[in-house]
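pls read this protein.

:::
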Amino acid sequence: MAPQGAESTPSGVAGLLPAAAHALYATYAGVLFLALALTTLLALLVVPGVYRRRAVARTISRMFLWGAGMPVTVEAPERLPEGQCVVVSNHASYIDGVVFTAALPPRFGFVIKREMASVPLAGLLLRRLGSEFVERFNRHRGASDARRLLRKAINGTSLVFFPEGTFTRTPGLLKFHSGAFVTAARAGCPVVPATVRGTRRVLSPTGGLPRPGRIVIRLLPAIVAASDTPEMTSQSLRDRAREIILQELGEPDLSTPPRTDQAA
């Protein structure tokens, strides 16, 4: 008869195997990301023209996601207009920008919080891609950024926004900022709502190690402004886009804090 506890060793080793495999995968994915990020940066320093640079970034983003076992599927791509538009999506993970870079045509530029401009290497890479940085906390600078975006949009630039401005550790949709919708209303172009699923799992906001998994972007029917007053149009675009995205996601509405009922 085997001594008590002798059978616990094999099961303990078996329990370590998934953790070791996950750590090994995370190391591989991290090395792959850094290698391709540096390759992208070097390419963007020498390739002329924003459109060409975005095409390079799109190709390398696809290479990373494929190599990391994070395949991206775009559902209903026919809903993306051939002309100018503004795409707005929920935000779930740091990897969302890479995913949309891989999924959308090179004619799209990204609108990103200004803090990213000061991140070493990432800020330079984003500037070379023609990304637009916006201030979230300084009202005067934010207004200046908004005017710059309007000039870009009026000149026919298609843009991608994550109108929540950030993401949470748990699933749910935050309140939308108005910048994307003011831009679309004043440029007179449609808003295309989109949802992204799977990025929260492959790169968790809680800081866990990356893991492989399927990512799905779903493009939803475009919304066209129906009012001649830009302010009213932007509000209706914002509210309608958020309603569509929230319904499609099926996640909690985090736009208002939960109510706490007090006992009488």
In short: Residues 8-46 form the longest helix (39 residues). The two ends are 65 Å apart (CA to CA).
